[in-house]
Specification:
By secondary structure, the protein is an alpha/beta fold. It has two domains: 149 residues, NAD(P)-binding Rossmann-like Domain (Rossmann fold), CATH 3.40.50.720; 189 residues, 2-Layer Sandwich (Dihydrodipicolinate Reductase, domain 2), CATH 3.30.360. It is 27% helix and 20% strand. It contains eleven helices and 15 strands. α4 links the parallel β4 and β5. α4 packs parallel to α5 and α8 packs across α10. InterPro entries: Gfo/Idh/MocA-like_OxRdtase_N (IPR000683), Gfo/Idh/MocA_oxidrdct_glycsds (IPR050463), Gfo/Idh/MocA_OxRdtase_bact_C (IPR043906), NAD(P)-bd_dom_sf (IPR036291), TAT_signal (IPR006311).
Length: 434
């Protein structure tokens, strides 16, 4: 079976010729030669949660080396550096300020595992400094940032890998090829499922900033608020100022696969409904969210559902996807396993369970200086994140929205259009001109 193309590139934005440099931002370009033994020298930005997997993933590759750890919380940074030395028998450089990482000529690539509100700005700054970028999902915090991320990748000709690792899964690549080849017939609908255990987080109030935390840096482009453990460190996911709820957290893997499997971009009609039904806690984002994305011209639809607590599964799937076709359906469980059921009698069809290394794919592209080698190129960061953002905007408005994918605007809808971008806090602003 032939391997499917990892992504059908679309021309979103024309390359610009002007370059705007953020005040005080480093413009040093690193040397063209890679580190010792041709190893890509990687800096991991954000090492409290997902960043731990980044450290393990890159350090485990023969052609990559984690050279620097960066986190605004010096306590976490020191702990993680100690763990690194104990595990790998080597010291690692520590930095609290990511701008110092970008100034480091010895760093070839950065791996961004910060909170969502930092993803795009950190990636753009890194690219302006000549670094290649692995950026966690969602690649953006709002719709506007996706266009700027693509613009920067094209202007600076950098390798950008979006952290949707299912794109590097052998099983998922095979599954997509089955969909393209018509195994389940005309594929008209995809369903994304995020049924995760999300308990009451309470309300911890505010307090002085703990020693060791650079809270100004942690807040970055977001609105400054009094320090609270409601945000720092994990539960920022449930505050609109920093996160995007579970559709923009776990759900990006599933929004990405929905769009990849259906071979669609952004939709023209969106409806979303949900709310908080269980906990009277500090979460701002909905616990339960059901969103529908309609593609009338293609006669296709995406359904997406977030549930936070006790629930049934759907054909054994709590986190994953289901694709519906005229001749059968496909069930994707997690990131690396699919099953197919054919005909009215649901006869079992092809199935496979096999993963792949998303980190290795990125490093190989960096060494080859070839962005096209990435299984999850920069456009996926915009599209899969953008689908989540559109669902959240529809939730906020409480209306069925009409969207123009060409202009990426809601025609005649000032309320919805205002939600496609945020106000940025100086000096942590997305450059208006890349």
């Amino acid at each position: 079976m032939k391997k499917p193309e990892p992504f059908t590139r679309r021309k979103f934005i024309k390359n610009t010729t002007g370059a705007a440099i953020v005040l005080g931002f480093p413009t040093i370009i690193p040397s063209s030669a890679f580190g010792a033994n041709d190893k890509v020298q990687v800096a991991v930005l954000g090492v409290n949660g997902r960043g731990k997997d980044h450290i393990k993933g890159f350090q485990g590759l023969e052609n990559a080396q984690v050279a620097t750890l960066c986190d605004p919380d010096k306590n976490i940074l020191t702990t993680r550096a100690g763990e690194f030395e104990a595990t790998y028998g080597a010291k690692v450089k520590m930095e609290q300020d990511l701008r110092k990482v970008f100034n480091d000529k010895n760093i070839d690539a950065v791996s961004i595992a910060t909170p969502n509100h930092w993803h795009t700005l950190a990636a753009i700054w890194a690219m302006q400094a000549g670094k290649d970028v692995y950026v966690e999902k969602p690649g953006t915090h709002n719709l506007y940032e996706g266009k700027k991320l693509i613009e920067a990748a094209k202007k600076y000709n950098r390798v950008v890998q979006h952290g949707v690792q299912l794109r590097s899964s052998v099983a998922m690549q095979e599954a997509i090829q089955h969909l393209r080849d018509g195994l389940i017939g005309n594929v008209y609908m995809a369903r994304g499922l995020v049924f995760k255990w999300r308990p009451d987080i309470g309300d911890k109030g505010t307090e002085p900033v703990p020693a060791g935390l650079d809270y100004d840096l942690w807040t970055g482009p977001a609105e400054m608020r009094d320090f609270s453990r409601n945000y720092v460190h994990y539960n920022w996911h449930w505050s609109w100022n920093y996160g995007n709820g579970d559709v923009g957290n776990q759900g990006i893997h599933e929004t990405d696969l929905c769009m990849w499997g259906l071979d669609v971009g952004l939709p023209t009609q969106i409806a979303s409904m949900g709310g908080k039904f269980l906990w009277d806690d500090y979460k701002e984002t909905p616990e339960v969210l059901t969103s529908t994305y309609h593609y009338p011209d293609q006669k296709k639809m995406i359904q997406f559902e977030v549930r936070p607590w006790m629930t049934n599964k759907e054909d054994g799937v709590g986190i994953g996807n289901i694709f519906y076709g005229s001749e059968g359906y496909m069930v994707v469980n997690g990131y690396n396993e699919y099953q197919t059921f054919l005909g009215k009698d649901k006869t079992p069809g092809p199935t496979r369970k096999e993963g792949g290394s998303h980190y290795q794919n990125f490093v190989d592209a960096v060494l080859a200086k070839n962005p096209a080698m990435c299984n999850a190129p920069v456009e996926t960061a915009h599209l899969s994140s953008g689908l989540a953002h559109l669902g959240n905007i529809a939730y906020h408005t409480g209306r069925v929205l009409t969207f123009d994918p060409k202009t990426e605007t809601f025609p005649g809808d000032d309320e919805a259009n205002a939600m496609t971008k945020r106000e940025y806090r100086a000096p942590y602003a997305i450059p208006k001109k890349i």
